[in-house]
Amino acid sequence: MVDIPQSVRDRLESLPHVVGTAVGKRRVDGEKTDETCVVVFVDRKVAETQLADEEIVPETVDCDGEELATDVQEVGDVTALSVEPAQEAERTERVRPAPAGVSMAHPSLSAGTMGSTALEAEDGEPVVLSNAHVAAPEPQASEGDPVLQPGPEDGGTEGDEIGRLREWSEISSAEPNTTDSALIAVDPDDVDDEVLGVGPLAGFSEPDMESDETYTKSGRTTGVTTGELRGRDARIEVGGFGGGVAVFEGVDLFTSMGDGGDSGSLIGVDDGEFRATNLLFAGSPDATIGIPIEAVEAEHGELSVIDGDGGTGGDEDGDEGDEPGAPGGPDDPTGGFEGGLRERLEAEYGDVREEEGAFRVGAWPLDLLVVPGEDPGWAAERARGSDADAAVIAVPAGTEGELPAIPAGVAVVEVDP
């Protein structure tokens, strides 16, 4: 793909009404041609007679020795969009397990979209993907904050927590940004493996400027819509971040595919299976802006789709492993004492998810880790290393005396499920 020199971008983006530049295909009467060009995005087109000679976009520019034509395309005012009424009521309801494409937000925000099905982060934790401006309000966002499904705009309250904020990208107004993304830690049992109205998420791929592929998204506000890729490697001004403008670079621009509240949706190619290419985060009535999944993974690490069984499979040799918490391992939380313990926790707290052989419990406002103690030594070590607000070792009735030294601040409870 052609690289636009920084000096060329700076010159073009200094011109009146220019809000961004990208590599794309020339469009004639709205139809894409085969000619690669430098796309110059403007908030509105004006007649050349209204501009001074030095304010007119040049017909060609030099890109490292290659003379490329320019194509001025109108995109309007690109912003992180304000929430609009949803077109499909089911997307604003509480759903468990929740499919991608439904309402989600931090308790202090309004509503955006839960973009993905369950994914596995590099450290193995199950997560879903959305925008930072949907799940992590700055500057007050904190790791472990609850994230609601549906979002508050759609009636979500503390009882609708679907996960906890794990990490997010910080948006700068002083220097270019590459992503607006957040990972929310979830219990995969609370997340459906479907993208609502589209089907299962099969994986990730890269947008292709040379193809005529149609791109699809499923979002909280406008549901399933399709569009075309207009430009890659865009640098563009985006309003609505802290009341100001932030510059994003390396993003992709599509024809209009969404509205306010669709932020966080995955954009991808659906050719019998849905493969995501971008994370939608901004737009205008004329355009939709997406972050390449490659940039999302550069920020958060590699993400893998969790299959419909709640996992990504066993070891290469087919074994499931002997680590605590693995199916068949010493603390398999799927049956026996652990299974009964989970049932008790779910009945008491509702929000329970498995985490490395233990249970993470949303005991509002605390983040509580409950470690099954049938393997006493491992349970004590797991509790000692917890990053939860509080940790508890749960043991079968009559066995508390068999535990080794317990870390300070960790409680032990006997349970008879």
Automatic annotation (TrEMBL):
List the residue ranges of the region (Disordered). Answer: 85-108, 137-160, 200-228, 304-339
Residue ranges of domain Nal1 N-terminal in the record: 19-65
Superkingdom is Archaea
Q: Where is the composition biased (Polar residues)?
A: 216-225
Output the InterPro entries linked to this UniProt entry.
Nal1_N, Peptidase_S1_PA
Q: Where is the composition biased (Acidic residues)?
A: 314-323
* Name listed for the protein in its UniProt record: Nal1 N-terminal domain-containing protein
User: Which species expresses this protein natively?
Assistant: Halalkalicoccus tibetensis
